[in-house]
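fwd from M.: "can u put these together and see what the complex looks like"

so here's what she sent:
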Amino acid sequence: MNVWLLASQVMIFTLVPLTWLCVRGDPRHRLVAFYMAGVVTTLLLMLLTMAFNRMPLMDLALTMALMSFGGGIVFARFFARHLQ
Amino acid sequence: MKTITIEALVAAAVLITWLCVLGMLRMRDPFQRMHYIAPPASLSVLFIMLAIFLQDGLKPESFKALFTALVLVGMNTVVTHAAARAFRMAEAKGWHPAKGEEVPVKATDEPDVAEPAS
């Protein structure tokens, strides 16, 4: 087991408390946990790419970062307009 | 030496992420929780990117990791600001000023407040 695989195995468990935060509380808390989950997933995809030595998979991490950016902006605008 | 540096960088990235998730759990206010997104989106991704550069050298995948890091750093600032603004708008019901209402733009526009007697 290389360090990348070990790190990704440790980091994947950060999604458990984040999922818990995403399913309870008011929408503001859920949205913040959702942003954090996007960042963690991007880091996780980078680690898994190195762990499995499949370099083209780095595109997935890049795509995840870009998509979570768009998703974050859309959610923030939706929150400001409709969840007041 | 290079292997130890890579391992230290990756371990630091994972540790920072875990600490920030635990800190986010500990906080009770969404504005406080938002601060905990910044370290993984800046420090952790920087450490992982440096570790990738150390392991693979100047390869296209390393530059993809660099670009991912830049996107994450930029995204974090923009999205955090947008979310905080949305939360503030949701809290302050009347976000837009009423017709004819004077809105202070600079600090000097604020009405004078009497100094409390000492």
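replying to her w this: Chain B has one domain: 2-92.
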